[in-house]
Design a protein that fits this description.
Largest sheet: 5 strands, mixed
Strand content: 15-25%
Structural class: alpha+beta
Shape: globular
Radius of gyration: 20 Å
Order of helices and strands: HHEHHEEHEEHEE
Low-confidence stretches: 1-6
Number of helices: 6
CATH architecture of the largest domain: 2-Layer Sandwich
Number of domains: 2
CATH topology of the largest domain: Heat Shock Protein 90
């Protein structure tokens, strides 16, 4: 009982910490935005570089905080779910947009496919977006050349499978037992501007579980990695 109470108190403190952190972070973000936009007069090239760095890292801190708080809420079953129907291929293309400049700079092809004649998917759009983007950022971070495939398969009255495959160098065997541990980042460090706190894959898995689904590592080798999101088919809705 004592351990349960400690855990509950600790989680309460984490929530309060997350809430209290947002006020100074939002102040940093708004101030850096105004600096970059020239609200305090024109900046010298060195000042602009410093202000841009401040702006970028302020947004990064906010992303880490948001992932952290969402992970805690999801783990404790405190996330609300809002189901609605939407076109999964259209959303997959939209959700991949933030990665495209980096993929282009690496000459990595992004291929998005869906089962022909698949119906609208019913899910929580925001939660599914965060799952897919976490997996896409992971693929983008550790792929230096080749291709990334995203495909959605529909099995009538059964399930959806969303596959994310890449042609990266794969996940080291020593990292596999820790893959979904919060804050585990392994030896390799991504060289792209993700939040970088080691919450991407753990957050994707716990959010999938909130949606009564799962995120699985299907395969990894020196020729690439394959993750799969499995979701049960939900009744169609017009919401």
């Amino acid at each position: 009982m004592a351990n349960s109470e400690i855990t509950s108190d600790f989680i309460h403190l984490l929530r309060k910490f997350g809430h209290d952190m947002r006020v100074p972070l939002n102040t940093l973000i708004s101030t850096s935005d105004m600096l970059v936009q020239g609200a305090y007069d024109a900046l010298t090239p060195k000042q602009e570089k410093a202000a841009t760095r401040l702006q970028r890292n302020s947004y990064r801190l906010l992303a880490i905080l948001d992932d952290f708080v969402t992970y805690i809420k999801a783990s404790e079953g405190e996330l609300d779910i809002s189901l609605k129907s939407f076109d999964i291929k259209e959303k997959l293309e939209s959700w991949a947009t933030p990665m495209k400049p980096i993929l282009d700079s690496k000459n990595i092809s992004l291929i998005i496919e869906t089962t022909e004649s698949a119906p609208m998917i019913v899910s929580d759009e925001n939660l599914l977006k965060r799952i897919i983007q976490a997996l896409l950022w992971n693929a983008t971070s550790f792929t230096e050349s080749g291709e990334i495939w995203v495909s959605a398969e529909y099995f009538p009255d059964s399930k959806w499978l969303i596959h994310i495959k890449d042609t990266g160098t794969g996940i080291p065997s020593q990292d596999l037992p820790h893959l979904f541990e919060p804050f585990w980042r392994g030896e390799a460090r991504p060289q792209v501007p993700t939040a970088g706190a080691g919450l991407g894959l753990p957050l994707a898995r716990v959010l999938a579980q909130v949606l009564k689904g799962e995120v699985k590592l299907e395969k990894t080798s020196s020729s690439g990695t394959h993750f799969c999101v499995e979701l049960a088919v939900q009744p169609q809705t017009n919401l």
